[in-house]
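Morning. Coffee machine broken again, so started the prediction first thing and wrote up yesterday's gels while waiting. Chain of 748 residues, entered below exactly as on the submission form.
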Amino acid sequence: MLRAPVVAFILFCSCTASLDVPAGVLINCSSDADCNGSRRCLLDARVCVEPTQSCVVEAAGGFAGVANGSACTLKSGAPGVCFSGECIVSRCGDGATDLVAGEQCDEGAANSDTAPSACRTSCVKAACGDGVVDAGEACDDSNVLSADGCRADCQKLEVCDDGAVDANEDCDDLNANPNDGCDKCTATEWSATRVLGAGGNGSSLSTIAFASSGPLAVDFNGRIYLADRSCRIYLLDPRSDAVTVVAGSGTCGNDINGVPARDANLPVMWAIAIDSRGAIYFSDSINLVRIDPVTGLLETLQSGLVTCYSIAIDADDNIVFSENDRHIVRKRYSDSGFVSDFIGVYNSAGSDFYENAPAGDVKVNQPAGVASDARGWVYVFDSGNSRILSYDPDNDQTHLVAGKATGGGGVSPDGTVASGNFIKPTGNGAKLARRFTGELLFVEQNKIRVVKTDGTLGTLAGNGANGSSGDGGPALAASIQPFELASFPDGRVVFEESPATVGAHVKLRLIANGTINGLVDSTPRAGLTTGQSGTATSVTSLADFEVATNGDVFAALSSPAAIVRVDHVTGDVELYAGLGSSSTSGTLAKDFQFTTPRSVSVLASGDLIVLDSNAARVYRIDGTTKVVSVIAGTGVTGSGGDGGPATAAQFRSLNDLDVAANGDIFIFDGGNKSVRKVTATTGIITRVAGDGANVCTNTAPPSCGDGGPATSAQLGNYDSSQVPNRGWVRVAPNGDLYISDQIYSGST
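Came back before lunch.
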């Protein structure tokens, strides 16, 4: 509201009542005698006023003004506000607080919207929520809401790890430790999930492996797909030496349609194939299932099958599959989904055949294996008749490729014409593989036989002896027992050893240019293997473990002396280091021999630091090269070396280690009653805790050096067989050192 300015003239004088003073001029007075006419002296303001105005009231000995800001009526009849006994026009900023008009304060020119604790330019008092941090406020973010960094009453900044639980926090434990039930002011609930260890179900370390042999296939990029009996499909890439789970949760079930393959509880699989687009097909013997290469979803293509043990993909991505006990080979067309019977007579076993016969005129007996080539021809291993047939789709003709037309088993030598001479297939359902060179492969009598392009028989690998040896040498001189086989686009051949040879494990071997080599070997070494399902393993010698930044778990096993890695995605276990034959620096981790690994630490770089107690050494395993090197210790038990290179130091009864943020390694040398540090930048070792000689006992009770220098402290007696030989050392993020010590009683 606009108000006319009030101009007051105050006359300071020694006046008498008879003095004629113009109206509108304020007269300074000390009594009514100083005022003229009907005016009276306003005692509290010491000015002459008209006693009839609404801003003046009678008071003892004279008149007094009402409270500033009280309502009054101007001579014009308009509302006003009392100020020093006068009725004036109300205006924020005039220095008069108009309570009736809703003003909380008015400091005139001192009003400010930025000065702390000032009356604001809107004549309201400074308050929480006005955006200015006033006296008594810790913050002010222009609102009165909590959970936005400033508490609603402006009395506290809302900060995690300050010990006070704010509106946007579940908890606040005054620290940044994520493992104490409060992580970044969010409550954490821990659920126990086994990663390594069977929980006493009777399994042994020898079960850390692929569950058992299963079907395999090779795609157009030379990658191997293996379906093992854990109901998973693994992708093995020989070029990158990488293994990936592409399907299966690791728990067997009946998921075959509409479920993401990676999360599915798949059934046990008997056949697998890959088409040109990367789609995966498998059979659990009664269903034919596809895994979409884009969505990753399962799709059931065909149900109600009987003993479907083999799948092949032809040149047009049609699916060829056999039903062993129905004595039929069928084709599912990729464009229409139509399924037709094209070799054999449904549910009718037989050996009827003549050269160039239409497929419908041929009878087969348990067609266990099928294959296809780039021309679209289909090859059938008619296992019950010990023969291999081919089918020409362009002319609807069948041909005898190997074996007798009328059946009958036997072994024919190399160089013999395959068609018309005996063959005796063995292996997993007499599986076939077609090389891109045009040769057809099958398994016979611990050998991989070849039907060459000229129609004669040959041998690709195997000396005929049952076994699994000869890697690195000529394939023909090796002992093999093939179970499954497949061919790479470049002509190399991969095969899987029979479970009868390697047990419930997986061993893949590769044949290239006449030489045989191991590709994947999960056969036990000292009771420990590479493979899958750490939760199926009974662990009795777990010494230590640590979690890498990516979630993988590295565990130190004291017996057998090894380091294993549990994959954070699959839960599979890998023998990472140990069980080799060399303890020399420069040895690959898989060939290295530990004595008693007791502690392991994982660095951000991926390197592992391993404390080998009985070897009196500390090792580094390079995360990239997997090469082992000595960090500390000569391998000889002793106590010397402080102040010199850590590699020249001696230890006695190593207990534990930890690595600081700067890379310094702290080693609990229990036998020498000390904690020693290897400085990362220099490799020099020094004693940082424990006096190295005296034993702390609980008979006093002792002080054990508390309150004094760490190097004068006394640690427990870790030489005594009567005391559990274990102490721990941990380095805090700020560099503080914590030691968990076991005090020796002196008598037990």
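The chain is about 0% helix and 30% strand. Going to sketch it on the whiteboard this afternoon.
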